[in-house]
Amino acid sequence: MPNRSGFTLIELMIVVVIIGILAAVAIPNFISLAARAKDAAVKSNCHNTALAAEDFSVQNDGFYAATVAPLRGFFTDPVGVAGFLRNPYTQALSEPVDGIPNSSGQTGYVPVVIAGTNAGYWIRGYGKDATSGPNGDGIIFSATNGR
């Protein structure tokens, strides 16, 4: 009988099972990675809005903006469009909204008024839907300047 070389059916089946197990572990991780990247982009937009609010405050003797409109010139999109942030869910350019955001990827700016003076702000970022975020309310980022 001649010398035969090659893989047996059992060896090939073991390899197929191993590849199937690896795919079952890797695919869900890859899918959740894209969602986490979009949430991180919303957090980045919120951080940029907070930096714009602080920059405005420094230039205006410690007073914060009453609306988001004066902050428009303080930040730019990565492609260089002034005053706009890129929504990671729709890829649309938009500015932060006044008040609490209510749709995917939006960033909201809420001034804190103390004794008639804009003394601070809240920044909120809205995730994919109303169930995302640590509290299940859609808000994936919420920060204040500490006042």
Can you offer a commentary on this structure?
This protein has 147 residues and is α+β, with helices and mostly antiparallel strands. It has one domain. It has one helix spanning 9-59, and strands at 85-86, 93-94, 97-98, 107-114, 117-126, 139-144. The strands form two sheets. It has a four-stranded mixed beta sheet. Strand 1 and strand 2 (93-94) form a beta hairpin. The chain is elongated and about 95 Å long. The chain starts with 8 loop residues before the first helix and ends with a strand.
Cα Rg: 24 Å
Order of helices and strands, N to C?
HEEEEEE
Shape: elongated
Number of domains: 1
Question: What is the oligomer described by this structure?
Answer: single chain
- Calculate the terminal CA-CA distance, rounded to whole Å: 88 Å
Strands, total number: 6
Strand content: 15-25%
Per DSSP, the total helix count is 1
* Low-confidence regions: none
Global structural class? alpha+beta
